[in-house]
């Protein structure tokens, strides 16, 4: 995706300790959240729809990131600047 290509240029994925969980809301944003994580090469566990949720969200190490904007920021935080 253009967003990830531009923001992740010259960066590499940090080693992760813990499991990233993606919870679906049953809305069209779920597909975008799934694609963002997949195209960024980030391993995660996907869960089906959660009743009452309006947007997809991620849980990681006790933190919750709701909506596409927070998910994008979360993905950005997983990368570090390459030195070279």
| Largest sheet: number of strands, sense, barrel closure | 4 strands, mixed
Radius of gyration: 13 Å
**Overall SS class:** alpha+beta
Indicate the multimeric state: single chain
Sequence of secondary-structure elements: HEEHEEEHE
Distance between termini? 25 Å
Give a count of the beta strands, DSSP E runs of length 2 or more. Answer: 6
Query: Kindly state the mean pLDDT as a whole number?
Result: 79
Helix content: 25-40%
User: In percent, how much strand structure appears in the residues?
Assistant: 25-35%
The shape, in one word, is globular
What order do the strands of the largest sheet run in, or round the barrel if closed? Answer: 3-2-4-5
Low-confidence stretches: none
What's the number of helices? 3
Notes on the structure:
It is built from three helices and six strands; from the N terminus they run H-E-E-H-E-E-E-H-E. It is of the alpha+beta class. It has a domain at 26-78. A four-stranded mixed β-sheet has the order 3-2-4-5, covered by helices on one side. It has a two-stranded antiparallel sheet with strand order 1-6. Helix 2 (29-39) links the parallel strand 2 (21-24) and strand 3. The chain has helices spanning 2-7, 29-39, 67-77; strands spanning 11-13, 21-24, 45-49, 57-60, 63-66, 79-81. The mean pLDDT is 79. The longest helix has 11 residues, at 29-39.
């Amino acid at each position: 995706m253009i967003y990830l290509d531009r923001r992740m240029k010259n960066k590499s994925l940090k080693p992760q300790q813990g499991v990233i969980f993606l919870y679906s809301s049953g809305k069209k944003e779920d597909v975008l959240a799934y694609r963002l994580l997949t195209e960024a090469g980030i391993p995660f566990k996907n869960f089906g729809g959660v009743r009452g949720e309006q947007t997809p969200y991620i849980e990681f190490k006790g933190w919750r990131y709701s909506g596409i904007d927070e998910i994008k920021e979360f993905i950005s935080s997983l990368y570090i600047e390459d030195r070279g």
